[in-house]
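Regression test attached.
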Amino acid sequence: MKQDLSRSMFEEAQGLFPGGVSSPVRAIKPFPFYTRSAKGSHITDVDGNELIDYCLGYGPLILGHAHPYIMEAIRSQLEKGWLYGTPSETEIQYAKKIRMYYPSMNVMRFVNTGTEATMGAIRAARGFTGRDKIVKIEGGFHGAHDAVLVKAGSGASTIGVPDSLGVPVDIAKNTLQVPYNDVLAMEEVLSAHKDEIACVIMEPVMGNMGPILPKDGYLKAVRNITREYDTLLIFDEVITGFRINMFGAQGYYGIDPDLTTLGKIAGGGLPIGVFGGRRDIMETVAPNGGVYQAGTYNGNPMSLTAGMAMVDFLERERVHHKVNEMGKAMWQSLTDVVRSMKLDYTVSGISSMFQIFFGPQPENYTDALKCDKAKFMEFWRHMLENGVFMPPSQFETNFLSYAHTKEDLERTVFAFKKSLGAIK
Ligand SMILES: Cc1ncc(COP(=O)(O)O)c(C=O)c1O
């Protein structure tokens, strides 16, 4: 695979950006490929290599790259101006549409990233309850802000320690962590810190280490326990919202969280975040209440227009029907390959998300960490050389899009088999 231009661009980038990149996951060793263009299910690098893309901008592009319907919507909005600093009608139309699919989001605020959405939701939960502590799930990712960049020690109620330099210990100590799929640990942490915990924030389906699915009854139990202890439940559906189906994981599993965060697909590929939920909680957000949240680009017409066009298209063309069928075919084919090669790896999937684990099927973060990460990266490189771009980490999810074809899938399964066979 010729990669001379990418290599030299990365050399130059190292003098310009920390680690040569604008976001850490892009720092693929020894160097990342630089993208020239992307269309449909394919991404082409500056050296002319055309790859089948399962990263899809880390999830937002459920219609594939440069989809004409979204492009047209963006183009027509451009003509009308791209930033107003005032409310717009699109805001109202889009919020009503979101609420139709996420009725738990009775009142919402548009922000610009998933990070801002979880930051706003947590602040609203703290403001509403008057409590400082929060609980998150080990290995759950909610963006890169202080309250959620925290790793717990061994026990559920261990005081959180920062996962990043620069996060004050005084902030981290308010973030407690519990393992996913562990009802008892959740019950223990909430009872040990009764009346201290503002909220539990979780990805209902763990997308940042897999996907890892909830065990039967787990989410319902979490909902019941949080109610019992008067703690708010935040579902971070930045990945799963409009991905699993139109209704997200909350619709799929039939759980009503108190607050929800959306992002990624909700912006049609342009930057967006949304947080919303119960009216009484959201009434605490400024200017109505004392929980401050503001932003120059909040509810900007470009992201709203692209997001609304995306939701319209998903609805009209019943996109999930096709991509979820494709997803099932994909993880079944990959599972067949793993079994036929008698390998003790597992393929995990839900809707149009999938991942191969180099180890047994994990149920939580501790399990996921046991997978063979070095082997995964070796496999990943072989996949790239065979024309398939997957997110470069054992702990990310692959995404399918409406633009992927049967031929893409066949080529991917072929590359998968060849790559597994090539691992030493
Ligand atoms: C579940 C989840 N929440 C929040 C975020 C942060 O979103 P953003 O990268 O738009 O800030 C991510 C990003 O991948 C995510 O996966």
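Expected vs. actual: identical. The first helix runs from residue 4 to 13.
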